[in-house]
Amino acid sequence: MATVSNPSSDSPSSQPAGDAGTRRQALSVAAACLAIFCAYVPLTAVSVALPSIQADLGVTTSELTWVLDAFVLAMAAFILLSGTLGERYGHKKVLLAGLSLICLGAVLGLSSGASVELLWTAQTVLGLAAASLLASSLAVVSHAVPDPRRRAHAIAAWASSLALGLVVGPWLSTLVIDAADAHWVWLYFTVVPFALLGIALASLGVAETQRHAARALDAPGQITAVLAIALLVFAVIEGPNSGWGSTRVVTAFVLSALALAGFVLRESRTSSPMLDLRLFHSRQFTATTVVAMLVMFGLVGTLFLLSLFFGGVQHRTVGAVALRFLVVTGPIVVTGPLAARIAHRSHPRVPLIMGLVLGGAGMLSLIGLSTGSGLGELWWRLAAIGAGFGLVLASMTAIAVGSVPAPLMGVAGAAINTLRQTGGALGPAVLGAVVTGRVAATLPHEFAARRVPPETAVQAHTLLSRGGLRALGELPPGPQSRAVLTAAGHAFTSGIHVAVALSGGALLAAALLALVVLRPTRRTASTKVATNLPAQGGEARTHTADRDTERPLST
User: Fold this and answer.
1) Cα–chain center distance at 141
2) Which of 52, 139, 137, 66 is nearest to 102 (CA)?
3) Residues 203 and 319 in one domain
4) Structural domains of the chain, count
5) pTM of the prediction?
6) What is the 3 state secondary structure string of 279-290?
7) Domain of residue 64, CATH code
8) Residues of the chain with pLDDT under 50
9) CB atoms near residue 350 (< 10 Å)
10) What digits encode the pLDDT tens for the residues 291-328?
């Protein structure tokens, strides 16, 4: 569990003195910011390059889905384990390991131009690195800066670095593929200098956090959690191609359900669970985790589809795709700090609901997307999605952590990160399946409307199933190939309309859930919360939490 260490007052590392202590704090915060920046750069950098990857490797849409999902799935599955490793062995070691994995993943990515399987491997390693860095970097910041006011500024810098990673990723892809005219594999090299600098800063400036050697790793819980998530994503991705009633898809769904049941059974019985199920006794925490999953589901899934649309349907350059992604990710940097100010003056649920409504409306507005839509027509829709996400991202973790007793706050943060990334893994899988199904249903009508000969239609179907929209470029030039490309573009756009309606509707439903469940209550007295969570010495402790009379959430 990714708990934030609370160093004792007599800890020399927690109470640095003088200029040396200030320098160490600055180095620690800089290392943590570089770490979280490196964790998120690959996500958007690769997203922009997906059309180039598909054209180069000749992979199907479902195989391309795994390029993103290999990263997000590994990240989701191992956040909790990374937090536990940080508690057991020290968060500095986990941070350094994560930055080292970034370099290893980049090396694997550089060699992945010949095989999609190598690319999946590289993305998996980078996802493991991201899990390690997400779990450890915030703990390093909290340990290095014990003063609450200065810590708030440090955490704001950390969150801004996360958003900056999302913004910079597309431009690094542009720099490599368009400006330098290099092969797409070289985009993996761009993150290496930042990771090496992070390793140097962490080695010099980060003090090791307090270790809890008695913390169990909970291998059965980790294994069943990974199996449950991975099998579910596999079934959703393979469903459109193999058939929802096929043996492999049904088996994957059944095994995923069994693994989930095993995980719940294990976590409810072990004395040292990876995920403390008592968190879900809080309606506020449960509602916030649902919101977090839906937000990442919609954002990552929509970015995946838009990348294919801009590259495969509109045939935009990588730079043009990156510019459109910047319109999405750029507002996150602005609305994140704005959300904090709104929450301070009112309640964290206010920017949360604002962001859900804004992001949901932005996604629903993409129903007006057409094959000829330019940036002038799209910018406000894309900006609304990004601005909404920034408001939500800054609010939901604060609400989730604030809705549980203090001893459970660390694991609450880790849990919401895990479930958020699980939603991110399901986004490309589910929305990609929706688009694939819609294309299969509408393409025959599109071909018939343009009088595409049956033999050409069969050839087009074969190319689409083998290599996606880009593979249609293999058709012989002429009027029939142009008709096929037009028909396929309209069918894919129709699929996007259904997908964004689903994701936008999900965000508006999440806004309604937040409005109903996340209602502030007034309490005038301290709320004494008894828990069975072992203290550092192993005994159970009772915690008394002073609840603010204006902002606490009912549980």
Assistant:
1) 21
2) 137
3) no
4) 3
5) 0.72
6) HHHCHHHHHHHH
7) 1.20.1250.20
8) 1-17, 522-555
9) 18
10) 888 888 888 888 888 888 888 788 888 778 888 888 88
